[in-house]
Amino acid sequence: xxxxxxxxxxxxxxxxxxxxxxxxxxxxxxxxIALALGTFTWLSVVFSSAxxxxxxxxxxxxxxxWEPFEISDNDEEGGRHHSHGSMAMVxxxxxxxLQSTDSSKRPFQAGNLILNQIVFGxxxxxxxxxxxxxxxxxxxEPQQMRGFVWLExxxxxxxxxxxxxxxxxxxxxxxxxxxxxxxxxGVRIARIVKETFKxxxxxxxxxxxxxxxxxxxxxxxxxxxxxxxxxxxxYIGNPSESHSANAYFSQNMAFxxxxxxxxxxxxxxxxNMEDACLERYSELYGSDDRLHACISxxxxxxxxxxxxxxxxxxxxxxxxxxxxxxxxxxxxxxxxAIDPVFPQxxxxxxxxxLVKAMKTEPTSFLQRSICYDHKRRLSFxxxxxxxxxxxPKIILPRELDRIERTFKAxxxxxxxxxxxxxxxxxxxxxCNKPFLFFLxxxxxxxxxxxxxxxxxxxxxxxxxxxxFCLSSALPVHEVQEIEVVSRPMPHQWHL
Length: 495
Fold this sequence. Notes:
InterPro entries: DUF604. By secondary structure, the protein is of the alpha+beta class.
């Protein structure tokens, strides 16, 4: 019965279906026409040659030098016009507008940077300066460099010492600090770039920030910064090696102990807006995160350079030194938190030997070479200026390229997930561990070569002997030293 009733209603249903199909076809046609018109319009805009507003923003839109200008009352909001090659922008939420000049008048050429165009701002503590100044002496040369140590209290400095001048930081008591775990000195240190800029030094292209326990390879620093146009705003450095530090602060923040390079235009803008910016971040922990917050407000991202080393590690830094990445070594930090870098040396004497190697040939310092003796089944890993490792078996480069985890993270953990660098677990078997030859001496050789001598480490041999590691591959009585002859790296190998 139900089927019969549906059959009786079929003619009416057919008419309704026909009308519905006609309506649906009309709707589809209208939508298709609209989509076609929209697509045509979009393509016309994208591929039109009249797009100067897009072309002008390719690369960095900000040029040096910065010139403040006044906004007249006749300028309507959003109605100011700018000629091609110049622009205006708001530097901060409440500060003045800044205008840049045409960058084409000052063409950038890589490699033109000289040491005197860099000014160092070194964060120090009056309580620790008498000890920490020995680290600064390792690398700072007052006759060739410009820089200042910024302390919270005045100290009597000995002018005969090879140290940068000591400056007294401004009073920061007017700034709020609400972080329950940190220290207000973070505000003071965050303002070092501003206070150094205010000194008004001439012919400055870069401000480089560091700590009083940082050692810089100044030669490589110049090479790295020479890649970048100092007339643009640059924020250069590297995050931490420790995952917990990056997770707490930021993966996109430069850590100041490893060094932060700030170009002159960025320092000039920070000089105008940083104090107001710091008031907005009273809850932050330290100095690096405050500086990062203010630079982020300007829209400037971090440019990572892997040779800047925060070294948020503790204990034996052997793996970091022996496994340096293929990049110019620029800095190292937290020198009091690590063990002596050479056996049979105290901390400072070991660093002096390491810095001697760094200054003798700075470009190839800590760069690695891997080679093999297939007949004796030996693998050699040479870290120029530090150590030669001789493994009693063939180990492929992919494994040797990874950093041996001989150290702990800043949170005192030592698992792979505690680091944001590529690491490997040390060999558990003493017999598989390498024979170690540590740097004994380094000097310039004939024909622009560098000759470095590495002496066999008795401690590692004793461990193997006690573990009954029977190996005739590298007899102690036959091989006591290894001499390495190397050449400087090509001038632009790091580009």
